[in-house]
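Field: sequence (string)
Field: structure_tokens (string)

Example rows 1 and 2, in order.
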Amino acid sequence: MAVNRIRIGKDKGELVQSLVDFNGGVGPFQTYADVITFAATLGAKYNKRIPLNIISKEPAPISLEIFVSRGYDAVIKLLAITETNDPHILSLYDTEAENQRIQIFEEYANGGLEQLQEELKGIVDYSEHLLLLLNLERFPNNTTEEEFDLTRFL
């Protein structure tokens, strides 16, 4: 049985590389698998599922075993079951189900990477900006600001 790999779109390869803290880079993520998983969850949040066209050679497709070893297989399965509403997609013995899970994950990651490209356009420090985005999600600004009333000074 061949080892499945998670592929990255060629148009997103440079972004993925810039988000990893590797070879002198200063990205906020340690591995490509971390970036792809974050992007897939972001794609799911914004309901952006975009099919891959041309596959990136650098970074090369990532072995599914890396995602499993980091505990990201749960994210892959959650996205698949949420998308299909079919419990059969979680089958460990059906290679077609596994291929479908991977395709769903790749497409959500591609959508999330597209969202990140838009969010990070013109940004120098990706780490700081991503932290700000995460803080906005964690602590939404629910307080309504009142207008400044000048009449109290009359």
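Row 2 begins here:
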Amino acid sequence: MPIVLIGGGIFVLGLLAVIALFLLKLLSTPAARDPVDQHELQQKRDARKARFEKLLTDLPASTRDEIIDLIGQRQKIAAIKVLRDATGMGLKEAKDAVELLE
């Protein structure tokens, strides 16, 4: 019986150590280690949004209207599908484009 209690205690201490290491890693965020230039990030977002807006203006009016209507109806997945079918975009890029238009 005492061996089981000792083994259980060691297991609990080990588990607590793992949790402590996980929390330390979580709390040392990349932002603390690698400062990010917020202005540069905003410029990248603006450039990406401008590129997506230009892409929409290059689409046929019916397709563009369908995408905008789907976004207005909160059917984001359907809007992504229409955009991908019309442009051949990848899933991530089409998702980002639709989210920028929301």
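free_text_note (row 2): The chain has a mean pLDDT of 80.
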